[in-house]
Structure formats: structure tokens, C-alpha cells
Amino acid sequence: LELSESHLSVSSPERLTEWISASAEARARALAKCLETIALKDPRIHAWVQISPQSATEMGPLSGIPFGAKDIIDTRGLATEYGSVIYRGRVGVEDAGIVTELKNRGALLLRKTQTTAFAYMTPGPTRNPRNVEHTPGGSSSGSAAAVAANMVPLALGTQTKGSVLRPASYCGVTGFKPTFGTLAMKGVVAFAKSLDTLGFFTHTPEDMRVLWRALGRDSDGADVNVLGAPSPTPTVDAPMAAAFNQALVTLQQAGVSVRYINIAAMLAKLADAAHVVMCYEAARFHQERFEEHGDRLDDLADLVRSGLQIPESRYDGARRHLDSCRQKMAELYQYTPVIAVPAATGPAPSGLGSTGDPTMNAPWTALGTPAISIPTPVGSELPLGLQLTAAHGNDALLLRTAERVAAIMAAE
Known about the structure:
Blueprint: H1 5-10, H2 16-21, H3 24-45, E1 48-51, E2 66-70, H4 97-104, E3 108-113, H5 141-148, E4 155-159, H6 165-171, E5 174-177, E6 197-202, H7 205-214, E7 226-230, H8 238-253, E8 257-261, H9 264-285, H10 287-293, H11 299-307, H12 312-335, E9 338-342, H13 362-367, E10 371-375, E11 385-390, H14 395-411
Parallel strand pairs: 2-3, 2-4, 7-8, 7-9
Antiparallel strand pairs: 1-3, 4-6, 5-6, 5-10, 9-11, 10-11
Helix pairs in contact: 7-14, 9-11, 9-12
């Protein structure tokens, strides 16, 4: 993508692809535009914990490109408060591995984005930029909102059930959860270690693929011309069901073959097993914190109480079920390398008392497969997302396919 400096300096600096193809001077002007946008919009959206641009320490493909980091990700010398008043004023002693990786490629950390407390259910102050009377989703609330509001072209999130893909769907941006274990979780506060996965927010799948390449990951190779889709469609709200089915029709009209597969019941059972695993592991990880702070942990306190009641035998049974499903899905991905499902149960719910339902995302997190949420055309309505998934390690194939799917839907 060829871009003049003047184009980037006067346009809203949304696309990561534009930043990467621009000069250092244009990137500096775009950064100033980001800071102006934050000053203008964040008093109403509350995406950021605090703004304090850090000096870039290295040159690289992301030089001068700003990013936000979810506030459960440690940052040296900067506040890392886990979205909780209990840890107000806590300062990180070293950068998390993913922050170091981005900095080593020249990216500029603006500061920390809001999160639900301990990346669980208790909502933070962030509002949805598309309609501030609605939730942005969670737990990576601030990161999704910051990208959606054009405050930053890139932000970090984490996902244990649906904490990247659901906010991406609600806010109308792209969210990507790579294959489990691809990105090290060093310096990220744990929740459920067998599920926790780092993720990213950008505007488009093309931006995400460019980011993946800038991080030294494989982003080449072909996409696929065949998508799997669940039949019957999982139980979702009417707007999401309509948008999902229309997306499949649009793709078929463009020459993409859709193979319908009977996995709805499996996905529901996967979500249930993932919930058991999450509660068991999170309760034991946060038990000491609970013993110290009790009900001050809000929703997390309830989780610890209930999770500690789960017997080891039930946890082991849930883990065995996940392993069995991973084997079945690995076989299915050989037949349909990319599977499409709704990215959320519907549009962002009204109000800020809840961050929404992660049911559509939890199965893929539990499987450890890469998954991406891309915006679907909805006109002036609240955003909706299409979720694409692929087999373990097929992140590049997934990103390529997502880019093609997004281009087809945008052309409709």
C-alpha cells in the first residue's frame, strides 16, 4: 500500500498497514493525531487507565507505531493494577514478554488499557465507542474500545473464554487469538493457565496479518476456498443469526464453498467443559488473593468460593473431554480447514452491568485453536462479527482466509 505523508497526516490513523508503509515523519504526525483523539474521546469512553507515551528503544518494522496493553500485562515502571482498586498504584517491575517483543520491533507503548477486574466479570468503566450506552465487552474492554475509537491502531488483550473475540465483535474491529502457546504469557497475570491466551486488536484482518509478519511469524501461503459452518446454527440472537447466514450467502455467491457440519452440540458441551476448567484453575490460582481480600474481589470472590468446591475428579473429566474434542476437531479440520461461526451471541448488550456472553468463543479457546473475529457489514446498527477458526498451528492460513473473507463481505 503506497501512502503519501500528507494523506496519513490528515486522515484518521486507523489502519496498521498505513502506518507501516508511511515515513517516520508521517508516523510522528499520526501519533500526534492519536493523542488528540484520545484527549477528545476518552473522557467519555474511558478506554485508558492512563496515557504516558514511552520512548521507543529499538528500530524495526513497527517503529513509532503506538499500542495499548491490557492492564493485566506487566510493564516496567508503569502501573499494572489488574483493573482492581485493591491494586491501585501498583507498578510493574519488568515488561511482559509480549511488550518486550513489540518494543524490540520499534512499537511505542502508550500506556495501559482498562480491563475488567482480574480479567474476570466485574466491569470496568469503559464504554462502547459505537454506542456509549452499551458494553464494549470484556475482559479486554479498553483495548477493543481504543482501537474502535481510532485512538490507537493496535492493542493487546488476553482471552480465557471470549475476552478478545467478543469485544472485537461488539466494537466492530478485528480480534485475533493465536494458537495456544504461540505467544509466551510471561508477565501476564494468570487466570486459568491451560486456557489463557494473548491476543491482538486491529481494524482489519489485513492489519492483523501485517502485524503477524512484523512479529516475525509466518503470514504467507494460500487461503482456502472452502468454509465449514455449523448446522444447525448455534443459538444466537436474531440479528446475529441473520448476519451470519447472510455472510455465508455472500461468500457462496462469491465462489466460496460452504460445507455444513453438525457440531453445535459439541460446541455447547465444549463451552461447559471449559467453564469447569476455568473455575477450577482460577479458584486455586486466586485462592491466596481471596484469603487476603475476601469480598473486595467482587465477582472473583464468588468464583473462588464456587471453584474450590469443584472436585479434582470433575476437573480431570472436563480435561479429558477437551482432549477428546481436540482429536475430533483435528480430524474435522482436515476436511474443512477453516470453520465459520458467529463471533458472539448478538450485538453488545445495553448497559454496563455485564460484558456479555462468551459462549461462542469459549469452545475455540478450550481447543487451543487460532480464531479471529472480523466485522460484518451492518450499516448503522450495532456491530456484529464473524468468527473464523482453524487447526492448531494454521494461524497464517486463518489470517489469509480472514483477509479474503473480509474483502468479499466489504465488496457486497
